[in-house]
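Sequence in, structure out. Go.
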Amino acid sequence: MKKTAIVTLMMMSVLFAFVLVFNPQRASGSKNPVSAATGTPLPDSVQQFVKKTCMDCHADGGNFLAKGKVNFSEWDKYSPEKQKEKAVSICKELTKHGMPTGKWRKNNPDKVPVQADIDMMCRWALSLQK
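Output:
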């Protein structure tokens, strides 16, 4: 009886972890970045970059852990201060090539940001600090 309860609890934990990590739920419209209604809107160049390079993971239909860091489907709900913080973090991750991840880069070589993209994103992040 005790073993059955432990095994059942372990199986439920694994299932819960699977749902959190892989998040099979798909949200409609998750591939379209939105502008910030309460803060600074995303410029067209930034929206294009985000749609091409970031939305696969950092949107409602994306990876649970990635969208926990920044979720472009929720960008309009971020305060201006949070937008500034997230923008600086994005610049840092892109600059040190921490994002996109190696696996994503390997699977999407045509979408990997080039230095001009990184520079543009960092200029945008800096412009929010003024």
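Check: The two ends are 64 Å apart (CA to CA). Residues 27-128 form one domain.
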